[in-house]
Input
Amino acid sequence: MTPLGEFLRSRRALVTPEQVGISSFGARRVPGLRREELAQLAGVSLTYYTRLEQGQAEHASASVIDALARALELDEDERTHLHALAVSRPRRPRPARALHADPRTCRLLDAMADVPALVMGPRTEVLAWNALGHALLAGHVAFDAPRRPASRPNLTRMLFLDPHTRELHRDWAVEARRSVASLRFIATGFQDDRELAELIGELTLKSPEFASLWGKHPVQRCTSGVKHLHHPLVGDLELDFAVLHLPDTSGQRLLTHTAAPGSQAGLALLRRG
Output
C-alpha cells in the first residue's frame, strides 16, 4: 500500500458512522467508516476509491482530494498532507547527501546568545547550535558533534532512544507525539531520501513507542508551541519554541526557544553556565 493509501485508511478508521450522520446496523468489521461509506460521502465511485486506497490509481484531482478531506473531517495540516501525498510519486531512494548549515546562519546563531537555538535538517539532524541551545538540549553531547555528518545528533532519535533526552521532557508523551507528527509532515516532501527512510526504519525497530505512534499517522506542521522541561542543572523550565523554515529547498529549519513567564531565571542561570 502506498503512503496515500495508508493515510486514507488510517483516517477512515477514526471517523465513526454516527459522526458523519450515517445509520449503522449490526456488527461492523472495521472501527470506522467502510470504504463504500467514505466513497459515498465524497461523491466518488467505490471502485475508484478502492483503487486510490490500494495505490492502483494515479493523478487524483484536487477536487476529489478536497472531497475526501471534507468527508474525513481533516484539519488544515492533514488536508495539506493529503494533497502532498496525492501528487507525490514513489521514487528510488537517493544516496544520502550530508547537509551543512550556511555560515551566515551559523553567525546568526552565535549572535543570538540569549536564545537557545539550533539549525536542523529535514531528518531532524542537528546541523549547528549555539552555546545556549547545546546547553539546554544536549549538554551531554560534544558541542562540535554537528560538524561530523556521520555521527550528528538527531533530535528524534535522541527523544526516543537517549535516556538523558527522555528525562529532559516533563511531558514526554506529548513531545513524542508532536515529534512524530512533525516528522510525518516533513517526510512527505523527502520520500526519496534514503537517510530519512533509514532513520524511520531504525526507530521503528528500536522503539515500540515510535512504531506505535508512526503507525497511527499523526500529522502536524509544528511551527510553535510550549515545551515543559526539567533540566538537570537549572530545574523546571517552560519555554516557547518557534520553528522557522529557512529560504532554500533543503528543508533546513531554525528552532528557537524563549522563556515563558516564570522561567527567565532558570534560563539566565543556564546562560551563565
About this structure: The longest helix spans residues 172-187.
